[in-house]
Amino acid sequence: MNCIKCHKQAPDDAIFCPYCGKKQTSSPRKPKRSPNGTGSAYKRGAGWVAQAIVGYRELPDDFMDPANRRQRIPIKKTKAGFPTKAAALAYIPQLKNTVEQSTLTLQQIYDAWEPWYSPRVDASTMNGYRAAYAYFKKLHETKIVQITAGDLQECMDACPRGKRTHQNMKVVAGLIWKYAKDKHIVTQVESENLYTGKGKSKKREALSDIEVEKIRQAIGKYRYAEYIYALCYLGYRPGEMLELRKDQVIEHDGRLFLVEGKKTEAGIGRTVPVHQKIEQIIRIRLFIPGTDLVFPQYQFGKVSKKHPVALFEGFKEMSDNYFREMVFKPIMAALGIAEGKVPYGARHTFSNKLKKAAGDDRDKAALIGHSDYTFTQTKYQSTNDSELLAIVDSMK
Fold it and tell me: What is Dmax (Cα atoms) for the chain?
């Protein structure tokens, strides 16, 4: 035989060529293997599955594989249901088109989800979700495919707020992950088994008459003090008051009324007479130009060497969070009012005053915006403006 390399004559039974040393038996050809990163296909049941690695999840030190010191595991994206291996492999380019989505952070997903979801709920509910989402801050810049239920639970356990906030955190996480799953960014919802029991429901204490008087005296000294004072005599939820627009204020026989509360079915269309103690505040605000909101947020430019005094730039709608953190809490602290009071406590202040006022319980339920005063009846709006006004005027 001739050598397969130098082509010189060699014995027929030679394993190696006596001239060049080339092995004369050929090794079996290894099966073709796709290059790393190009995806693969495997059989499952009667069909085939296309698979691509879209990223890696880092493992903590205490989970490190002692055998090979692996500190990360691959995150795989799959698509099943192909009749043949060729069909599964042909789909891989489409499957890998979603690989870029695996690099999206939680914040990027949230930024896409919020404008899509917010029209489906009222502003007050959405504000609650925004506030709850803020407590996932340590995960905002983490790729969503790398976030586990344990990561979410750690954020919830570290949240200092009450159980309601923990519940909102679970809800908003579920909504975001379901949105990401529908977009084929994640394969499972990580929030389903989150535990909200770490937090305890916090009692929203009402502001006392002495504290309400302190707030009244602060009007003109602290910006927005009149907002807090008005909230004590409206019975509105903070979000409802901040959404209130001038066209919702009507006048009848010389008295002002507010219409169209928006929080619940019971609140829609209810009429709230304006208490005489805050009527002048409302009237003045109706004539402030540049906004259709009754209680807007003032906007000022940044202070600089060129502009040492912040210049007024206009108005915008104030968020629940801004009202709580930048208005209510600072003013309460400045007035020496006990820490722990929250804006919603002003609604309880109104409720306490309402209990002491003369009038029918159904009428009182209409004023506070509940389906009834004891939460047991389903219809209450058999009232008229004069009856509601009489109750409000009897409140101290």
Answer: 123
